[in-house]
Design brief:
The protein is an all-alpha fold. The chain is built from 19 helices and no strands. It is 74% helix and 0% strand.
Length: 462
């Protein structure tokens, strides 16, 4: 039996941590301001638009009535975007990398923000708010959200930095299994700590993943770097598969309350809330960006607001009374998820082709063959940004002496990265390559021997 607590304790943490750990850090930090604005303020705008629209439509007897906190809770959970299909198409068609990172980065932070907003609404529901004015309610909700967001982010960042210092000064590179075990412990630690002190474990584990990938990862041996990367991808893929399998089965296995007017108005509000989020904020950001967000990019970002498993799991987690209200929210959430994935996700590729934002060389290459496999990247065992082999001199030449670094990137390259990461010597590189070669030869020999015993026995049989 699938329970929301199982989703939040076992299935969601690996998905969120892997998304933060596998970010392309260069593009992410270069666009961190835009991504944060879309993910935090944009998600809040969408939640208020959807929640307020549902509340006022209910008061006008157009759809079923929900109180203010329940409407805001639904608006918050349905604002969690999951553009899996869109990102796969972006990668296949090689669209503008800035557009790719804006959509992908927003979706990562957006999930955590949406969960915090939903928890905020739930917290208001549990309290007795009858004697509190609307302005006081808003201030309480804002204070709770800020505490959850910044407190959880600080806890996750601190845990990631501690893990970097521990693995920098305690050399475990000759024992990859112990090194890998330490990484797994540090990966789940911020989630448990945050939940234990009533903060957001999802927000904490996301920031921990980003920091550990940026610093701790470079203190690992090459074997553990590859092992960590591939294990996280595999576990996250399995967790996503389990969640989407349950999402499909729930259509037929749970009682539903379907109201066509409620579903249609919610879809309209979701699309309108996404538009109010993307277009005004994009025009605002263009005043400060060197790489402008074009109207075509804005439209693609609006169109890529697909909904996935997280909104449905959050709808199950809501403690709504009576039961008919919970069934209505759950059924409406499933309907919106299916609508966005099937209709919007299925229309993304022709829309990108029509909008002509695909790279010209990629268009010629992909005209006959387009691979949309979400698991294709799992076969790329060794990636340059995830296999650190820079010596002290090479790091200084590549980063410290660059004149184009500004702001946080300059501070990170000059001070933070050298403090939290180990700079390798030529001897370290030599030992790492010998270790990789030895283990690879060992695994290769075991595979060639097979179950029959040894390679010599097979040659004698021939």
């Amino acid at each position: 039996m699938f329970r929301p607590n199982m989703f939040f304790l076992l299935l969601l943490p690996p998905i969120i941590f892997e998304s933060g750990y596998s970010l392309h850090k260069g593009n992410f930090f270069q666009n961190i301001g835009s991504i944060t604005l879309f993910a935090v303020f944009g998600t809040a705008i969408s939640a208020f638009v959807v929640g307020g629209g549902i509340y006022f439509l209910g008061q006008a007897d157009v759809i079923s009535k929900l109180n203010m906190t329940d409407s805001f809770a639904f608006g918050s959970l349905i604002s969690a975007v999951d553009p899996v299909a869109t990102i796969a198409i972006f990668n296949a068609l090689h669209v503008d990398p800035v557009l790719n990172m804006l959509v992908f980065g927003e979706s990562i932070l957006n999930d955590a923000v949406s969960i915090v907003l939903t928890n905020t609404a739930e917290g208001l529901t549990r309290k007795n708010m009858s004697d509190v004015s609307g302005w006081q309610t808003f201030l309480q909700a804002l204070g709770y959200f800020l505490k959850m967001f910044f407190g959880s982010a600080a806890l996750g960042t601190l845990t990631g930095l501690i893990s970097a210092l521990v693995l920098k000064h305690i050399d475990l590179r000759k024992t990859p299994s112990l090194e890998f075990g330490m990484m797994i412990i540090f990966a789940y630690l911020p989630y448990g700590l945050a939940e234990g002190i009533s903060l957001s474990g999802i927000m904490a584990i996301l920031f921990s993943g980003i920091v550990m990938s940026h610093y701790t990862h470079h203190n690992l041996s090459p074997v553990t770097q590859i092992l960590m990367q591939q294990t996280l991808r595999t576990v996250a893929f399995l967790c996503e598969t389990c969640v989407f399998a349950f999402l499909g089965l729930s259509i037929f296995s749970f009682p539903h309350k379907f109201e066509i007017s409620f579903v249609i108005w919610c879809i309209v509000l979701v699309l309108f809330g996404r538009a109010v989020n993307i277009f005004p904020l994009s025009y605002l950001l263009n005043f400060f960006r060197d790489h402008k967000i074009t109207p075509k990019m804005m439209f693609i970002m609006w169109f890529s607001g697909l909904r996935g498993a997280i909104p449905y799991a959050l709808s199950l987690h809501l403690d709504l009374e009576p039961m008919e209200k919970r069934q209505l929210i759950g059924t409406t959430t499933i309907s919106i998820v299916l609508f966005t994935i099937l209709l919007l996700g299925g229309s993304t590729m022709p829309l990108i082709r029509f909008a002509d934002i695909e790279d010209a060389r990629a268009r010629r290459r992909n005209k006959k063959d387009v691979n949309l496999s979400k698991t294709e990247k799992m076969g790329n065992t060794v990636e340059s940004e995830h296999l650190s082999e820079l010596t002290e001199e090479e790091y200084e030449a590549h980063y410290v002496r660059r004149q184009d670094l500004k702001g946080f990137l300059w501070l990170d390259a000059k001070y933070l990265n050298p403090f939290f990461t180990r700079r390798l010597t030529q001897e370290d590189l030599h030992h790492g390559r010998i270790q990789m070669k030895t283990l690879t030869n060992k695994w290769y020999e075991e595979v060639r021997q097979g179950p029959s015993g040894s390679e010599d026995d097979e040659q004698e049989l021939l």
